[in-house]
Every structure is written in structure tokens, then in C-alpha cells.
Design brief:
Keywords: Acyltransferase, Transferase. The chain is α+β, with helices and mostly antiparallel strands. It has helices at residues 10-23, 35-44, 90-104, 119-127; strands at 2-4, 47-52, 55-64, 74-81, 109-115, 131-142, 145-155. The radius of gyration is 15 Å and the shape is globular.
């Protein structure tokens, strides 16, 4: 079941997100998220979680793409699914709900920032109708090397 995120989901969300931060280049960030930080964000921006029998197996959230009033209708999202939930359509279900909610909130465009070597993430977004609109070579530094960032966009 896809439902709105709640502050009490912060521990599970942190566990999912921190594994991505620690173990992959899917995000270039290196500072792990704290449940307190995430609980505060859940109250301040849209969050949806995939809840299966009381276990949070994935999440999606978004925020304004860039600062300033000219960007209020464009958002960048983060979607992550726990290892145990992969291959079960959870990511697709989360993104479907995110698109419905974003449209209802007046959002015109969603942006995905995908690490260049995350070919699975790029294929996932392409299957959802996102298209590559830009590639920024060597803008991310992680694990002692440079990484490209691929920008993908879907007009809602």
C-alpha cells in the first residue's frame, strides 16, 4: 500500500536511504540521514511510503528544483526502495502516486538526477516516461573518483 509518509516512518526511511548513501554512487552525498532530520522533512514536504504489512519498503519525496519563484512548478524527486522490496513494482507505484500528487499540487515538471553509472535508475525513469535532458560530466565526487550526473525530466 502506498500512503503518505508520517514522522514515525523516519527510522525506516533513514535505514533505506543510508544504505544508498553508504554503499552506492546512486547519490553523491556522504552524510547519512538522521531520523530526526527526516521526521522534520516529512512535515515540511511531500512524502509517500510503500507500506507492506507494516514495513516501509520504499519512499518518494520531492522539493522545488531550484530556489526562486520561477521554479515553483518544477521539482526534483528522490525515490528509493529497500533491497527486500526491489523487483516488486514498488518504485513504479511510488512514482505513480508522486505524479498524481505533484499534478494536484500544480507541478508542471519533475526532474530526476541520476548518477551516470546508475544505468538501472536511468532505465527505470525512462520506462516511466522521463527523458534525458542533460549530462553534467564529473560533477560528483564519491569513493575517490568523479561521477557524471544525468538529468532526466518528465512534463506532467
Amino acid at each position: 500500500m502506498i500512503r503518505r509518509g508520517r514522522p514515525e516512518d523516519a527510522d525506516a526511511i533513514a535505514e533505506i536511504w543510508n544504505a544508498v548513501i553508504r554503499d552506492t554512487t546512486h547519490t553523491f552525498g556522504t552524510v547519512e540521514k538522521t531520523p530526526g532530520e527526516l521526521a522534520a522533512q516529512i512535515g515540511a514536504q511531500p512524502w509517500f511510503v510503500a507500506d507492506t504489512a507494516g514495513a516501509v519498503l520504499g519512499f518518494v519525496t520531492w522539493a522545488q528544483f531550484r530556489g526562486g519563484t520561477g521554479y515553483v512548478h518544477t521539482v526534483e524527486h528522490s525515490v528509493h526502495v529497500a533491497e527486500a522490496g526491489r523487483g516488486r513494482g514498488i518504485g513504479r507505484a511510488l512514482m505513480a502516486q508522486a505524479e498524481v500528487a505533484a499534478r494536484a499540487g500544480g507541478i508542471h515538471a519533475m526532474i530526476a538526477g541520476v548518477a551516470g553509472e546508475n544505468t538501472g535508475g536511468a532505465a527505470f525513469h525512462a520506462a516511466l516516461g522521463f527523458r534525458e535532458v542533460g549530462r553534467l560530466p564529473q560533477v560528483g565526487w564519491k569513493f575517490g573518483r568523479w561521477h557524471d550526473l544525468v538529468l532526466m525530466q518528465k512534463l506532467l
